[in-house]
Design a protein that fits this description.
Number of domains: 2
Structural class: alpha/beta
Largest sheet: 6 strands, mixed
Distance between the termini: 29 Å
CATH topology of the largest domain: 2-enoyl-CoA Hydratase, Chain A, domain 1
Strand content: 5-15%
Shape: globular
Length: 259
């Protein structure tokens, strides 16, 4: 794997660290390519049950690599870059592994988008969030037009999109950008691993199907009932469901295998 994205394993949890200190982990084309490949591979890896995404060197991600924007980019080149970014977000949101974003320092622009694409977002007191796209005459990308309003509502999302205001930790918690604050950087990974252990303690097929439902959105009761009808009867037939019932009856801890 490239040094731009570092991977560590903690049992069934993969920890991915964005690693480009010169640019505060800006999402260059090379980093997007490596991150997309990594996330897609982990989604196909049965030994991985959850992913933690963080930034190295004191910052989560400063967004797009502005130094790479100085050259003229014809429409096909710009669209090609977007395809890479969309691979990353699709692997995070549509994949079958829960993703925890562990944020310290800046999550700006597309870095903000990555953080909001996670299932759960924890942050340190020095975390700062900014939708900086209006400052460089761009629209929010990597799905932020979808993910931020779902977290904080349309009115506040509009305010942050239009003003490009920096949101610090207290306001981020109040708005719902951040789900949980830790006391300091030392506790950030520790807490993320604790949460990941909770997320991976139960049946992976159930977690994957819940993620899929929440990603597509359940706007009506009928949609929820239809999703249940399509999936619950099939889950009754899985080895994991049978194992869970057997474990309950015999007063033991089930061993789930994702089958």
């Amino acid at each position: 794997m490239s040094d731009l994205v570092l991977e560590q394993r903690h049992d069934a949890v993969a920890v991915l660290t964005l690693n480009n200190p010169k640019t505060r982990n800006a999402l260059s084309r090379d980093m997007l390519f490596v991150l997309a490949d990594c996330l897609e591979r982990l989604n196909e890896d049965d030994s991985c049950r959850a992913v933690i995404l963080r930034g190295g060197n004191g910052h989560f991600c400063s967004g797009g690599d502005v130094s790479g924007m100085t050259a003229e980019r014809p429409l096909p080149v710009g669209r090609g870059r977007m395809v890479l970014g969309h691979r990353v977000v699709s692997a995070m949101v549509k994949g079958n592994k829960p993703v925890i974003a562990a944020v310290e320092g800046y999550a700006a622009g597309a870095g903000f988008s990555l953080a909001c694409a996670a299932d759960y977002l924890i942050a340190t007191p020095n975390a700062k969030f900014v939708s900086s796209f209006a400052k460089v005459s761009l629209v929010p990308d990597l799905g932020l037009l979808w993910s931020l309003p779902r977290r904080i509502g349309l009115a506040q999302a509009r305010r942050l999109f239009y003003s490009a205001a920096v949101t610090e930790i207290d306001e981020a918690l109040q708005l719902g950008i951040v789900d949980e604050q830790v006391a300091n950087t030392d506790q950030l990974l520790e807490r993320a691993l604790e949460l990941a252990a909770q997320f991976t303690a139960h049946a992976p097929l159930s977690v994957a199907l819940v993620r899929s439902a929440l990603a597509r959105g359940m706007d009506t009761l009928d949609q929820a009932l239809a999703y249940e009808m399509d999936n619950q009867a099939a889950l009754y037939l899985t080895d994991d469901h049978k194992e869970a019932v057997n474990a309950f009856m015999n007063k033991r801890t089930p061993e789930f295998r994702g089958r």
